[in-house]
Amino acid sequence: MVIQDDVLRERVERLEALLRETLETEHFIICFGLRDSPNGRGIAREGVTRRGQIRQYAHALELAFAHLEAAPLALPLPPFASDGKLHVYVHDVPRSYGFTQFVPGDPPVIELACRGAEPTPEQARHRSYAAAAHELTHAFTLPLRLPTWVEKPDGSHASIDIWQWLHEGTAMFAETLVFPCNHDCMRYLVGWCDEPHRSLDHWNAQYQAGVFIGFLVRRFGHDFLGELWSLASQHPSPTALLEAVLSSRGRAFASPDPNVTDVFACGYCGDAYFLSDPSSGCFHPGLLERHGGRLITHALVPEPSHPETTGVDRVDHLGCRYYQLFPSAAASALEVTLFCDPPEAVVLRGELLPVGTQFARLPGGAVSLQRVPAAQPDGRSALRAVFPGFSTANGLDHVVLVVANCSYGATARDRVGLQLTAQLV
Ligand SMILES: [Zn+2]
């Protein structure tokens, strides 16, 4: 394959010299070598232990290609090599199951691991299929949006592409789109369950964004994701892109205004609580069973004449927290107040959602917290709402308060503090 970029060309030349066997399919040339060869020409740790591994990769790549290029997703095709194929190199990819590079002017280069550390052949097969679909998705999306490099906010002076979370989220989603019964991606979702207060676009939570991409597809269709990528090069950031594409459909991406039904707080954050509810945009009972669903910050049971107050919790931009509120026998109405420092209150949004005994969202009945106009005696700001019918009648098991930080982009605010008081009224 002719490559113009010096660094990429050197890498490809080294791999082509090393990996002398090929398997050709309709869209791919897969280059590989055997670890142990009976003629003494094995390539040791850079090789596969069996050819079946290569046939699995070939099968997965062609299946994934069909899903990505065809309607309704219909992603634009990546540039092919001069032989009309995409080239894939199977070897000992350093510290990874796969790696895809794209330099403008050259075709993307896909690398896949010659082996993993999974305990069983079945788990190894699942990892192989997931990795092939994942890396091929990168080969499709990387040419659609060049990187915007910024310094990682961890003091390491390393760089990160602000588009990477959207690339990784899309690739993780594609794994489950192509192979719905393959749960290999679950290994990356512990953080999604345990740390909902972290930002959707945090540089260290990129794989977790796959759940958000799945939500968008479920709510707006596969063509929405295709449209997103076809327009990516026209926008300065993923959040600006989401804002623009959702706006063209009459929707707001993330808004703290309780009068606006936004997609982030009212849609995604709310739905993410209901993993076992088929009507949820995040319906994923396997994730609930494996990792326990999204973390509950506090579960409160307010008693008559005894308000419950939490300590101060923090939530980053495009993150959220969940508070469960259980009715006691005598309950009738619940008043919930969120306190926060004045400059930060403007980014928070609170939604009270009724939950039934089967852990399904009860229809209607959602209540948005409203801004309290007057400053509180201690100088803080407050959001407040009263939830009527707060009793176990009518199938109510509990109410979940979803508090979302709706700030993002240039006005993002992190570690916003909030304190919750719940009392019966
Ligand atoms: Zn990736």
How helix-rich are the residues, as a percent range? 25-40%
The top-level CATH class of the largest domain is Alpha Beta
What is the distance, rounded to the nearest whole angstrom, between the alpha carbons of the first and last residues?
A: 73 Å
Q: What is the overall shape?
A: elongated
> For the report, how would you describe the main beta sheet?
6 strands, antiparallel
* Each distinct ligand: zinc ion
Query: Count of helices?
Result: 11
* C-alpha-based Rg, rounded: 25 Å
The total of beta strands comes to 18
What order do the SSEs take from the amino end to the carboxyl end, as H and E?
Answer: HEEHEEEHEEHHHHHHHEEEEEHEEEEEE
CATH architecture descriptor name of the largest domain = 3-Layer(aba) Sandwich
Explained architecture:
This protein is of the alpha+beta class and 425 residues long. It folds into three domains: 6-144, Glutaredoxin (3-Layer(aba) Sandwich); 172-291, no CATH class; 298-424, Sandwich (Jelly Rolls), CATH 2.60.120. Helices cover 29% and strands 22% of the residues. It contains eleven helices and 18 strands. The chain has helices at 6-18, 52-69, 121-141, 164-178, 190-194, 209-220, 222-230, 238-248, 264-273, 285-291, 342-345, and strands spanning 21-24, 28-32, 86-91, 98-101, 109-113, 149-151, 159-161, 298-300, 308-309, 313-315, 320-325, 333-340, 348-356, 367-368, 370-371, 381-388, 396-405, 416-424. The strands form four sheets. Strands 9, 10, 12, 15, 16 and 18 form a six-stranded antiparallel β-sheet that branches. Strands 1-2-3-5-4 form a five-stranded mixed β-sheet, with helices on both faces. Strands 8-11-17-13-14 form a five-stranded mixed β-sheet, covered by helices on one side. A hairpin with a 3-residue loop joins β1 (21-24) and β2 (28-32). The radius of gyration is 25 Å and the shape is elongated. The mean pLDDT is 94. The chain binds zinc ion. The site of zinc ion (ZN) has 4 residues, from α3 and α4.
